[in-house]
Amino acid sequence: MNSIIKTKNVKSDGENAAVPKHIAIIMDGNGRWATKRFLPRFAGHAKGVKTVNKVVEACVNRGIEYLTLFAFSSENWRRPQEEVSLLMQLFRKVLVGEIRKMGENNIRLKVIGDLSKFDQDLQELVRVAESETAANTGLTLTICANYGGHWDIVNACNKLIAKGIGQGEITEDMLSAHLSMAYAPEPDMLIRTGGEARISNFLLWQLAYSEFYFTDTFWPDFDVQALDDAITSFQKRERRFGKTSEQVQVQ
Ligand code: IPE
Ligand code: IPE
Ligand code: MG
């Protein structure tokens, strides 16, 4: 707890806030981390889970309200079958193993993405983990699994059509409200580890005004100091939302 960042001048909309209210992370570089060490790619994923635990704990300690992690994209099915099934096993293990700790840390778990493609038992584990943590009031931890930004937007459109919303009636607020992360404010900051500077079909709608932070560090090497470096970078930025710098400063 000694590394808590002091909050100052926190506004409810996150502007000028000392810590971002919502951090989203593309956890990339597990495979290259392992390959560099002559280890199988899976060793990188296993080490990556350890980083997840450390980053979640750090976010709890820093009073961050929402942490959203990209764990498996809708495009990741294209990987070798063996890697996909090892990733599924790891997801199972994490769900079973971490649920008690989430209770202790007052964490509310959410899993978003097209879960219908997962095995029934995994879908059931997700349902149990979500319902057991639903009343927790601390950090909302969202795991994006079989998630794709395209899927999310199309899904929202289909929900609106199913409600009988007619041509010309869809508004931005309505579409937002039907996205799978409608319960959270849009991310203030997106972190991508692993050196690539792309979104890879992550939260396409919700990242419209997020501050991007790219680091070459592979996800298994990302640590609490690296998280604090990202938060420090965020704190130095001026979020203008289309306005001029002068307008933002007089607010
Ligand atoms: C991210 O690491 C984890 C997943 C996509 C599941 P990668 O597995 O993409 O690692 P690299 O990019 O190959 O190093
Ligand atoms: C993005 O990483 C998905 C996750 C981190 C889960 P990828 O490694 O799959 O991204 P691309 O394919 O290199 O863009
Ligand atoms: Mg990758």
From TrEMBL:
One of its GO terms (cellular component) is cytosol. Mg(2+) binds at D28, E211. GO terms for molecular function: ditrans,polycis-undecaprenyl-diphosphate synthase [(2E,6E)-farnesyl-diphosphate specific] activity; magnesium ion binding. Catalyzes the condensation of isopentenyl diphosphate (IPP) with allylic pyrophosphates generating different type of terpenoids. Binds 2 magnesium ions per subunit. Its EC number is 2.5.1.-. This is Isoprenyl transferase. Substrate binds at residues 29-33, 41, 45, 73-75, 77, 79, 192, 198-200. Homodimer. The active site is at D28, N76. Keywords: Magnesium, Metal-binding, Transferase. Belongs to the UPP synthase family. Gene3D superfamilies: Decaprenyl diphosphate synthase-like. One of its GO terms (biological process) is polyprenol biosynthetic process. It holds the Pfam family Prenyltransf. Its cofactor is Mg(2+). The lineage of its organism: Bacteria, Pseudomonadati, Pseudomonadota, Betaproteobacteria, Burkholderiales.
